[in-house]
Design goal:
This protein has a 6-stranded parallel sheet with strand order 1-4-3-2-5-6, with helices on both faces. A 3-stranded antiparallel sheet has the order 7-8-9. It is built from 11 helices and 9 strands. The protein is an alpha/beta fold. The radius of gyration is 19 Å and the shape is globular. The N and C termini lie far apart (39 Å). The chain binds adenosine monophosphate. The site of adenosine monophosphate has 16 residues, from helix 2 and strand 5.
């Protein structure tokens, strides 16, 4: 496994693999890797012959007062996990390498429609930071395929839109959510939860399961499904609900009815103390 910290060295490693005729895959991450990330790596190795993982805590996607400084950074563990998972290249740039002009003066990519709803209401500059860094990573690695998690549902919808709008020649693959045995979606931020919040966090999963069950039993009124989503989270003492929505799978438009021919997804977000957790589930195929 190669570890590159500069853009030229990452490019050189990938170009060599490409010259050997290998199909290039990329898994962008912020590190503090867990089994969810490793599932993406595994999928990447299935779909490509050369697996690159980027580890970059992207300052441009954190707002003021968010956890940029305290976000977990455990490079040695991450490298061990990547090596064991059969990764070919870890790209671990510094912030100066990715933003030579500094974040305030950087060129940004905006994906208007999908950036300022849901997560984007609470984090107004988050998605332009995500889109910008991912396009930069695509330019550096030029992957044939890039794997993202369904865990960050809005993120993958926005990145698909960006790639389509800017004609980026990469296939975006989305991997299902990997969960803890009790159902909490794995996240590098789960370590922030105290025992009470950790117990309370299961309300998200309960809410989604109840919504999936209601739709499977024939419920098609999206407002009733929203109520089903809200109630376990609102009755959980440790949680403050941010949103519980039923949306179109591609456009993220709020739905009135759940109907055949239009895939519906439930999105939830809640705060547990200072920690925000998000989760989602497909309601229809
Ligand atoms: P992050 O390091 O949190 O930026 O995540 C890097 C990638 O891993 C993103 O595409 C996430 O959606 C994905 N990811 C994070 N947690 C999970 C999970 N529990 N299951 C599936 N994918 C995940």
């Amino acid at each position: 496994m190669q570890v590159a910290t500069t853009i030229p060295s990452a490019r050189q490693a990938v170009e060599q693999a490409r010259a050997e005729g290998r199909r290039i895959g990329l898994v962008p991450t912020m590190g503090a890797l867990h089994a969810g990330h490793l599932a993406l790596v595994e999928e990447c190795r299935r779909l490509a012959d050369y697996a690159a993982v980027s580890i970059f805590v992207n300052p441009a996607q954190f707002g003021p007062g968010e956890d940029y400084d305290r976000y977990p950074r455990v490079l040695e563990d991450d490298l061990r996990m990547c090596e064991a998972a059969g990764v070919d290249l870890v790209f671990k740039p510094s912030a100066d390498e990715m933003y030579p002009r500094g974040v305030p003066d950087a060129t940004f990519v905006e994906v208007p429609g999908l950036s300022h709803v849901f997560e984007g209401v609470i984090r107004p500059t988050h998605f332009r930071g995500v889109a910008t860094v991912v396009l930069g990573l695509f330019e550096i690695v030029r992957p044939d395929v890039a794997v993202f998690g369904q865990k960050d549902y809005q993120q993958q919808a926005l990145l698909r839109r960006m790639v389509e709008d800017l004609h980026v020649p990469v296939e975006i693959v989305v991997h299902p959510i990997v969960r803890e045995p009790d159902g909490l979606a794995m996240s590098s931020r789960n370590i922030y939860l105290d025992p009470d919040q950790r117990r309370g966090s299961l309300a998200l999963r309960r809410a989604l399961e109840a919504a999936v069950a209601a739709v499977a039993a024939g419920e098609s009124d999206a407002d009733r499904v929203r109520q089903i989503l809200r109630s376990p989270i609102e009755s959980e003492g440790a949680a403050v609900l941010d949103y519980a929505e039923v949306v179109d799978a591609l456009s993220l438009e709020k739905l009135g009815r759940i109907e055949p021919g239009r895939t519906a997804v439930a999105l939830v977000a809640a705060r547990f103390g200072k920690t925000r957790l998000i989760d989602n589930a497909r309601l229809t195929e």
